[in-house]
Amino acid sequence: MKRENGLTEKRQSASINKHLRLAMLCTVLCSAGPRIFAQDRGISVEPIAASAPGGNAGLFVGINQFNQDNSLQPLRFAVNDAIAQAHLFVIELKLVPPANCILVLAGEPTSEDARSQLADLDRAGVKRADPLKSAVLRSLVTVAEIPKDDGDLVVVSISSHGFEDRGVAYAMPSDGLRGFLEDTAVNLSSVEQRLSQSKAGKRLLLVDACRERASPDARGADTPMSAAFRSALAGAEGQAVLASCDAGQLSVENPELEHGVFTYFLVEALHGKAAADERGFITLRSVSDYVAGAVQDFVLRAKPGMERSKAQRPWFKGPRVAEQIPLAVDPGIRARQAAFKTEVMTVVHSLASKINRRGAFNTGLYDRLAEALEQAQDDDAGHRLLLRAQEFIAGKVDEELFVAYVEKTLETSEQQSARLEREANERKDHERQAKIAELLATAQANDSKENGRTALAALDELLGLDPNHAEARLLRAKIAAYYGPTKDAPWENSLGMKFVPVPGTDVLFSIWDTRVQDYQVFVSESRREWPKPKFEQGPTHPAVNVTWEDAKAFCEWLTKKEQGEGRLDSSQSYRLPTDAEWSIAVGLGREHGETPAEKDGKTEGVYPWGNQWPPPHGAGKYRSTANGDENRNTTPVGSFEANGFGLYDMGGNVCQWCEDLYRPSGQERVLRGASWSNHDPDHLLSSRRFSHLPSHRGRSDGFRCVLSVSSPPP
């Protein structure tokens, strides 16, 4: 329905009615229950709901008479207690429908009030059951199965003699025998277990049974609750337990009250004597606190001189969420809520005149704010929103500020999370840019060989924040050249071998295979044997007839040479590439398998030049039938086009030794890249591995060095 001047009369009337209904509503366990208020002549209960929720259920047991065991002294007011509690939950609080309530009594009510309440319950249709053990247990099963979901309540109350035997707590039915507790008494652990199986989300067990330990020769002596009995009751999980007294105490019956003291003050608490919280609700925790204090104070007054630790004090045990369940409402809250809602409706109506269809406070925002005000509660947040709206109406806050406040206040949890994340990211980005500027300034101020280490540390931190910062990368390459190779910049060594970084690795790759002229220097200085091939090679051809052991020795020699010359520091060294590094350098993606043998040839249709077959002219130096190249044997390094990393001859010319074993259990080492003698498509695959013993020397086998600028591979 559209608004007329912000709110039509019909909408206003419907909204006011809704607010009045909300103001009158009190959530009580299952979202329906009574208002409790004090009158001049005492405490009264006025139910809100016409009938109790159909999924709630209750069992109330009161046993005065024990007809099978003369040693059990009769009780005076257990029947009165059960009747009073049933009347409270069924008739007064309207929490349990009469049809879902079972009353178990052994004996007759002993007061006019109890007899009147019992008559009310009978007229309402409350069911009765025999006070025998079997009937009590059947009744328990019945009420536990009535609830159907988490919103339902089941309450079980037992007033009788109680005993403990071997850590098990028992309550006595009318046919119970003290000498045969396990066979004839009601096991309270079984009661708790049956309750835990109920679908009810709210389960309350009330126990007033504190004459506890039985012995065959004891005849009616009252015995305080033992620690074992209390422990057995407190073991209940998933439900709230309110017991009439603590360990070492007796549960007292009082003739003047015509009730057990526990039940009397329990009823008083639910009649409004328990303190309300700041919302005006009387919670289960408030009820239990009131009952505990009131019962003990009453007993101490009735029995002067009794030690406080011996005086009856009820105790509560249950989940934290159960403590906050509201059971009643302070009458003042109704008036406050009604007044608040009336004030809200006035503000909503007045806000309509502030709508600026072309401004920030437009119809859409007005609708959102009106809905939020109509749903606001009589609490700090609700009053704060109402006050800001009143200030806006009175012209004390300008439109822009008010709209900003409203937008922030009305945002959903998702919108709030998004805003907070956005603001946090903006702060982080601002801090990041400021840090980058600071680090770049530090590096520029220390651009010299003397202070370059400070500059490099600043640039490394900067590139960690922004890896693509072009100015920082160029400056780092310049400063790093003062000291030697780094993994991020090209490098040329003392033999004229050129190295470039390969992303995805921590090494610099030689751009070509080790040349004859490079290897010859090593052979001359080390006097190492080097059989020449039977074909002609120039100084820039790749060195062949080199074993894996020769290649390793060359790397060690060159490392020692350049460390001694100060070109490399102690953490930098030449070595052969690992099989994994070579795969990255040739452009392979993820390979399946753990070892070189398992990966051998598994990536099909991928060659150093691409995916086509046969290889295009100029793709590399392979056997002539592969690409039509008529040149035989090796060619000078760099004769063909480099790959994307600037590396030449990653396929063809010579096979290249790698660091790895072909199989962990074997002795053969890996060679990669094919050579001038290969032409078979499988041999030219980028994923193809060859293998030979470390001492193998072949006319098509050479090697490529990498420069490790950090730590060597494992």
Please explain how this structure is put together.
By secondary structure, the chain is of the alpha/beta class. The protein has four domains: 94 residues, no CATH class; 218 residues, Rossmann fold, CATH 3.40.50.1460; 66 residues; 218 residues, paralog of FGE (formylglycine-generating enzyme) (Alpha-Beta Complex), CATH 3.90.1580. The protein contains 23 helices and 25 strands. The strands form seven sheets. Strands 5-4-3-6-10-11-15 form a seven-stranded mixed sheet, with helices on both faces. α8 crosses α9, α11 packs parallel to α13 and α15 packs antiparallel against α16. The longest helix has 33 residues. The protein starts with 8 loop residues before the first helix and ends in a 6-residue tail after the last strand. The relative contact order is 0.06. The N terminus is likely disordered.
List keywords for this structure.
5-stranded antiparallel sheet, alpha/beta, 7-stranded mixed sheet, Rossmann fold, 714 residues, 39% helix, 4 domains, single chain
CATH topology name of the largest domain: Rossmann fold
Low-confidence stretches: 1-50, 211-221, 625-630
Q: How many strand elements?
A: 25
Global outline? elongated
What's the architecture of the largest domain, going by CATH? 3-Layer(aba) Sandwich
Q: How many separate helices?
A: 23
Q: Strand-residue fraction?
A: 5-15%
Mean pLDDT: 83
What is the terminal-to-terminal distance? Answer: 75 Å
Biggest pleated sheet: 7 strands, mixed
